[in-house]
Predict the 3D structure of the following.
Amino acid sequence: MATTPFSMVIPTYNEAGGIEKLLRAIDDVCKANALDAEIIVVDDNSPDGTGAIVDRLAAELPVRCLHRPGKLGLSSGVIDGWGAARPESRAVGAMDADFSHDVGILPKMVAALDAGYGLAVGSRYISGGGISNWPMRRIVTSRVACALARPLTNVRDITSGYFLVRRDALDRVKLDPIGFKIGLEVIAKAHYGRVVEIPYVFTDRTTGQSKLNNREIVNYLKQLRKLYAQRLFPGKAA
Ligand SMILES: Nc1nc2c(ncn2[C@@H]2O[C@H](COP(=O)(O)OP(=O)(O)O)[C@@H](O)[C@H]2O)c(=O)[nH]1
Ligand SMILES: [Mg+2]
């Protein structure tokens, strides 16, 4: 059976330090496992020149860069990237640019889609998964964020930003890009049928800086409020 063609979207803002290494690592994994991938980097006019690095690499790797005029947010970047995906991709995904998400599990994620799962989520919170070097503050924030969303789904790593979803699972789904957590939006709203979590060990970035700030935490709470309202009062606009 042919492997599922997919488009992996990587939103970037000031990721010049690691983007080339990451794109080469993804390409190596895809080639070694005969995965049919295109990579779309969505760059928000990063002052550090991330977009220009990706443009240069487009000549040699299956990658292209979507340039947006300014910092418009992670989730809207992922959604815009999906909108630009090539027609033959039957799945779309998201991944961070900072090497936190283990490229080594990509073949397992694609194999899950090949096997009929509609959503494959890279997971820190199932057996075999973990977090290697996050400060305690981030670990606690992440755990609390997951606990708050727990009633919405059985997926353990609800705030994972690393996943692949069948493209038709997003048909007629209105995604709200308000928060940092596009994965939660997809997990809570898309029509993916069976879901599988694939364990990996999250490693904190070694170059560049996190863009998760207090504003994004407030946005996450607003996103949750909307999702709960939609669950409790379907049909009403939240
Ligand atoms: N295009 C775009 N990418 C963003 C924006 N904010 C964050 N990102 C990217 O989203 C990914 C996750 O952000 P990161 O700072 O690593 O968040 P953390 O892992 O929660 O600390 C990285 O690839 C960032 O470069 C944004 O406003 N626009
Ligand atoms: Mg990160």
Residues 96, 98, 100, 205, 210 surround magnesium ion (ligand 2) (CB under 6 Å).
